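User: Structure tokens for this complex, please. No commentary.
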Amino acid sequence: MIGLINYGAGNLRSISQAITVLGYEARIISSPEEAEGIKKLIIPGVGSFGAALSEIRRRNLENFVRDWLTDKKPLLGICLGLQLLCESSEESPTESGFGIFPGRCRKIRAGKIPHTGWNSVKIINNDPIFDGFAGDEKFYFVHSFSRLEIDCFSLALTEYGETFSSVLKRDSTYACQFHPEKSGASGLNFLRNWVEKC
Amino acid sequence: MLTHRIIPCLDIDDGFVVKGIKFNDLIKVGDPVALALRYYQEGADELILLDVGATVKSRKTMIELVEKVSAHIFIPLTVGGGIKSTEDIKNLLMAGADKVSLCTAAIQNPSLIEEAASQFGSQCVVISIDAARCGKSWHAFISGGKIDSGLDAIEWARHAEQLGAGEILLNSIDQDGTQSGYDLELLSLISEKVNVPVIASGGAGSLDQILKAITIGKADAVLLASSLHSRKLTIKQIKEFLKEKGVEVR
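Assistant:
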């Protein structure tokens, strides 16, 4: 059973449907009590950094997520979910994220904003999450902030004006800036790899 | 590199795909779920469902349709037509839409753009502009292209962006369904004036016109309806052609 953290803003339905189509079960988690029996956790991504955090707090899910991360249980952050796993974001300067990935997310400075559409993902560190990938797959992005730090946690990079980390990993925490649930067959493969191999 | 998107659009009236010419003479062209699935499998980068029926019955059918379509296709889904409130938007997003497209309601009540952007994020607010040439400029029309709002289409696009629109869907009423090419002049003017992605719509009939919408019109995405429904063009054929001409596609 895969848990989807519900902070009110994210459209959980599409992720839930993608997981169902892969043959697994998903449950929407709006309080810690609902997380009983969950093996893997997804923090989905739509909304703003500060609003998402305060809603996570209001639902008593902040400590639940922090404990989950401390215990190194499998987690995937998607889009805003990636940003919430960083230390902070320019979007809500006074808020602190979960701090798994060092650095502050920055507003995109070049090109049209939001960065909307299908873009390349250049794998720089191989990982089971990319199993079966040829390397020329494109993924659907829609975001206005990104993590520009490129470090030992960066598995893949994407270019849009600047280069940013589009896939990150630390221990059993993964994060992607694109929406795998909206990235067609490549996205579904990425999700399947995470569910089965990560 | 960011690719240019090819977006099929399904005009829906009471559960059926329809297509008109210059916003009139609607004819039924097929089952939306089957057509959506076909375009997804053929490599569509995104899909738009527009409720052109605008009756209470058609609205209800639309929610069910969004639920059905979003269970089968894993690309972004935009839904538009007759949306008047943040409550309408919420219902569509809950049903599986990723973005909503606002036209008449946004012109009549521009604060809806701000409310929607702050509640759901700019990324899910697409402002659809139905534009027609009025003398030397273009006006934005409302109510399915029937009424001139008096607003200058270019000024309205800029204002909508300031209010929080995340994308502009530009429909040329003059070109709609004619398959005689996009309105490149208006397209390039709007693409230059706004800093959000612009989707070109209305008039796609040939590979060359699609290429021009991107190279001359500076469109970030192109919307197609008639020419895909009739199989005059296919998504695969369009992408191969664009690739050959040096345009990045998925």
